[in-house]
Amino acid sequence: MAKSQLTFRKKEQAKKKQIKKQDKQERREFNKRNNDKGKSLEEMFAYVDEHGNISDTPPAQPYKFKEEDLLKPADLEDEYLFGKVSYYNEVGHYGFIRDNESRETVYFNDTLAGQILKLDQKVKYKYIRSKQGNQISEVILM
Questions:
Q1: Could you tell me if 55 and 49 are in contact, meaning their C-beta atoms sit under 8 angstroms apart?
Q2: Angle 47-48-50 (CA atoms, 0-180°, nearest 5)?
Q3: Is the torsion defined by CA of 104, 109, 114, 117 positive or negative?
Q4: 59-72 per-position pLDDT tens digit
Q5: How far apart are alpha carbons 22 and 121 in whole angstroms?
Q6: Could you give the angle at the alpha carbon of 109 between the alpha carbons of 100 and 116, nearest 5°?
Q7: What is the rounded CA–CA span in Å between residue 117 and residue 110?
């Protein structure tokens, strides 16, 4: 009886192996039919119109950028962000402010802030990017 079970298991393994081999061959044939090799660069381009729709045909007229469409860094610097102190280490006099909208954290210490902040205090702030990450450049208590 053990011998018949052993041969049955071997037969099942052979069937699985054959099915796996067949699936692999089908995938190989599918990939051969649907590959992009040999296409020219122009055939692989995708174009985006002024409404954000993607197509494979170039637009009839190229979009002309207006100066007011572009964001100026000076405009971004004038905006304050709103958040609250999510962590404060009293021994090291540093902490993090979590933005209300983006939920990103920004590092601060008492020297950068120019004042002592407390946990869960609501603030209005600006930040700069540095090698170590985002850190505040200006803080106003609310």
A1: yes
A2: 140
A3: positive
A4: 777 777 777 666 55
A5: 65
A6: 85
A7: 7
Q: What is the largest CA-CA distance in the chain?
A: 86
* pLDDT score recorded for residue 69: 62
User: DSSP class of residue 38?
Assistant: T
Cβ atoms of 96 and 86 within 8 Å: the answer is: yes
Three-state SS at 19: helix
**Paired tokens of 54:** 């993607």
Half-sphere exposure of 140 (CA within 13 A, CB side): 8
Q: Record the pTM.
A: 0.45
C-alpha distances out from residue 58 to 47, 48, 124, Å: 6, 8, 46
